[in-house]
């Protein structure tokens, strides 16, 4: 190729045409020759850098776009350099490049939008909002900036403004699926379930649609939503707009499916961080060092996690174990945060840090084991664990299932019932089994005074079935069984936890469909834990949900002295109540089919003497069973951590399940 300007330009136009047709490899070949022949041909050098960016060859993209900046420092050149730096995880350099782009072109909307993304990643909501507004001012129909602004407004509790902004995003780009998804999520949160369902379906997000349908007790199309959700997950790589925990209720979901969906979701959602190597860790501590354990969560306040864990944290042997909490909890002040302040355990606040900064903060503490208490549950920040800030990461308590992606956790804490060794293939993590039950309990938890039935709107002489699980866990099949029980135990009522008016009205209508007077369904308001435990004593028999069973709810029920009937399934989430009942000495209340579940509950409801015997057995086992022995549980948990670290220290490539006796 000669250096004739006309020929060079002709070749450049040829490469540009290939670029515009997305034939990047062919364009790269021509552009390579061009820049070799004319190293200061700005357009060719710049376009070659862009082509490498699109080919995910980011180091080469950086080289050529930086050369282009030297030749001619245009705003577009700096903008593209910023994009490359973001892919290379060079956030500071990316920020500088975008700022330079705006200095050269104050109306560069995409640069402002990307600066907003950087600030959002650092949790600097005020700055993020400023940059998104700047992008919109520069480009009034920039749908992506509206969507991002809506996200910031939602996360800073400016819900009505967020909805208006998201509707603008949809107006300017009807194909921007994330705008619909964020808005639908807000409708769902506000109890506008049908609007949420319709909007989720519009973008083909059937996973979230079935969740909204369950939360609102809209069951007419639930079977079809479930089938479509599972089909879409099996045949798609788009996993951005749902949470794996919400699929646990889907009928027919197998543990292997759930593990594999978790892996796909993690690899999609955490793609950027998983492409980067883990953080460099400090030199390992001597083998005889105090074992250093960290707990990571957003729930270190009045939350179900702390209801279970408070006693453990108070009883940890801090002479033999270094314990530290890493919190990205909201700022709260309650009895549980006060208990934490009284402990000799430091709480590190990560809430205002970026994921990278949070991971580096944890890594500096030179832990042996980091215990993630969130998994795929709400408000999780798995980007932190994906950066591997400790040599061993353990998943425990918050999420009843496998995360699927091995980089997120090495072990999962279970027990012989929820995670039997025979189920090892259900998990990407290695099983680490507690001897009795994986779930801790706080044996100092107070049970409030027992109110009268009249005070709780319960009939004095009725048999009271109860289920205080979230309505999302109900299924048409289980609810039909409950109605069948009410039909065959004439003087009985079903006591449930209330929700917003829509799901409550839908459940009452469902009772009518099943031939039951809706007045026999009695809804209870949410109360503080102590008062709730007090009123639970009024129930005669608790009924578990399926396929997702009671977790903390089951512990509360048993702690209050009420027997619980459960059905065992294949999922971790279907086995928790069975584990609790086994650990408290009532395995006879575990069934394996719907019919057995129904027959057992029916026979108990018609046998007051048997109910009384069960309550007496539960009371006798209250202080002797391992389920409610916090001291014993804590010592077992510490033994399990030691066994996990010992196996890690041996350096074997293959990890074996750890089973404590």
UniProtKB/TrEMBL annotation:
Per the UniProt record, which EC number(s) apply here?
A: 2.4.1.255
Molecular-function GO terms, alphabetical: protein O-acetylglucosaminyltransferase activity
Q: Which residues form a coiled coil?
A: none
User: Which GO biological process categories is it annotated with?
Assistant: protein O-linked glycosylation
Q: What is this protein called?
A: protein O-GlcNAc transferase
- Note one Pfam family from the annotation: Glyco_transf_41
Q: State the family it belongs to.
A: Belongs to the glycosyltransferase 41 family. O-GlcNAc transferase subfamily.
Q: Which PANTHER family match?
A: PTHR44998, UDP-N-ACETYLGLUCOSAMINE--PEPTIDE N-ACETYLGLUCOSAMINYLTRANSFERASE 110 KDA SUBUNIT
Enumerate the spans annotated as O-GlcNAc transferase C-terminal domain.
259-442, 452-637
Q: Which domain of life is it from?
A: Bacteria
Q: What class of enzyme is it?
A: transferase
TPR repeat placement: 75-108, 109-142, 143-176
Q: In which pathway does it act?
A: Protein modification; protein glycosylation
Question: What keywords are assigned to this protein?
Answer: Glycosyltransferase, Repeat, TPR repeat, Transferase
């Amino acid at each position: 190729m000669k250096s004739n300007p006309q020929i060079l330009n002709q070749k450049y136009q040829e490469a540009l045409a290939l670029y515009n047709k997305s034939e990047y490899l062919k364009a790269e070949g021509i552009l390579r020759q061009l820049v070799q022949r004319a190293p200061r041909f700005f357009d060719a050098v710049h376009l070659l850098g862009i082509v490498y960016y699109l080919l995910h060859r980011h180091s080469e993209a950086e080289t050529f776009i930086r050369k282009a900046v030297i030749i001619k420092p245009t705003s577009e050149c700096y903008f593209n350099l910023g994009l490359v730096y973001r892919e290379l995880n060079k956030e500071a350099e990316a920020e500088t490049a975008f700022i330079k782009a705006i200095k050269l072109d104050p109306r560069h909307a995409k640069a402002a939008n990307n600066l907003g993304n950087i600030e959002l990643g650092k949790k600097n909501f005020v700055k993020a909002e400023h940059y998104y507004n700047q992008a919109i001012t520069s480009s009034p129909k920039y749908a992506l900036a509206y969507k991002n602004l809506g996200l910031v407004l939602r996360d800073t509790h400016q819900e009505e403004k967020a909805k208006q902004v998201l509707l603008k995003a949809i107006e300017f780009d009807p194909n921007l699926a994330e705008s619909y998804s964020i808005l639908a999520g807000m409708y769902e949160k506000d109890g506008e379930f049908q609007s949420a369902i319709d909007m989720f379906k519009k973008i083909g997000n059937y996973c979230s649609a079935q969740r909204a349908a369950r939360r609102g007790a809209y069951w007419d199309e639930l079977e079809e939503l479930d089938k479509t959700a599972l089909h879409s997950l099996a045949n798609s790589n788009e996993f951005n707009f749902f949470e794996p925990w919400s699929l646990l209720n889907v009928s027919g979901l197998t543990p292997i499916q759930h593990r594999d969906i978790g892996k796909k979701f993690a690899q999609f959602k955490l793609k950027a961080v998983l492409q980067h190597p883990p953080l460099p860790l400090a030199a390992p501590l001597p083998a005889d060092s105090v074992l250093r354990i960290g707990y990571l969560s957003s729930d270190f306040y009045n939350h179900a996690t702390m209801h279970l864990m408070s006693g453990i944290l108070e009883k940890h042997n801090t002479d033999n174990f270094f314990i530290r909490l890493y919190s990205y909890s909201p700022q709260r002040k309650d009895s549980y945060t006060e208990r934490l302040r009284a402990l000799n355990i430091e709480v590190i606040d990560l809430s205002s840090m970026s994921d990278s900064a949070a991971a580096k903060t944890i890594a500096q503490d030179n832990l042996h084991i980091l215990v993630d208490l969130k998994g795929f549950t709400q408000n999780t920040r798995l980007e932190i664990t994906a950066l591997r800030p400790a040599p061993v990461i353990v998943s425990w308590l918050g999420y009843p299932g496998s995360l699927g992606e091995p980089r997120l956790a090495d072990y999962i804490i279970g027990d012989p019932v929820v995670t039997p060794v025979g189920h090892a293939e259900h998990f990407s993590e290695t099983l680490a089994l507690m001897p009795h039950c994986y779930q801790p309990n706080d044996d100092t938890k107070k049970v409030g005074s027992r109110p009268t039935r009249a005070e709780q709107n319960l009939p004095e002489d009725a048999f009271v079935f109860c289920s205080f699980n979230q309505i999302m866990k109900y299924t048409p099949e289980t609810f039909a069984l409950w109605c069948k029980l009410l039909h065959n135990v004439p003087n009985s009522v079903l006591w449930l936890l209330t929700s917003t008016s829509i799901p409550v009205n839908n459940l009452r209508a469902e009772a009518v469909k099943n031939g039951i007077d809706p007045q026999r369904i009695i809804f209870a308001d949410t109360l503080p834990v102590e008062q709730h435990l007090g009123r639970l004593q009024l129930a005669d028999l608790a009924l578990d949900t399926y396929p997702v069973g009671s977790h903390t709810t089951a512990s509360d029920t048993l702690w209050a002295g009420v027997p619980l009937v459960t059905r065992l399934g294949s999922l971790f989430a279907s086995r928790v109540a069975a584990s609790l009942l086994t650990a408290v000495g009532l395995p006879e209340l575990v069934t394996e089919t719907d019919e057995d579940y129904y027959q057992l509950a029916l026979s108990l409801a018609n046998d007051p003497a048997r109910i009384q015997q069960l309550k007496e057995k539960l009371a006798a086992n209250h202080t002797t069973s391992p389920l409610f022995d916090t001291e014993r549980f804590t010592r077992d948990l510490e033994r399990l951590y030691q066994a996990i670290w010992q196996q890690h220290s041996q350096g074997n490539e293959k990890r074996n399940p750890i089973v404590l006796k």
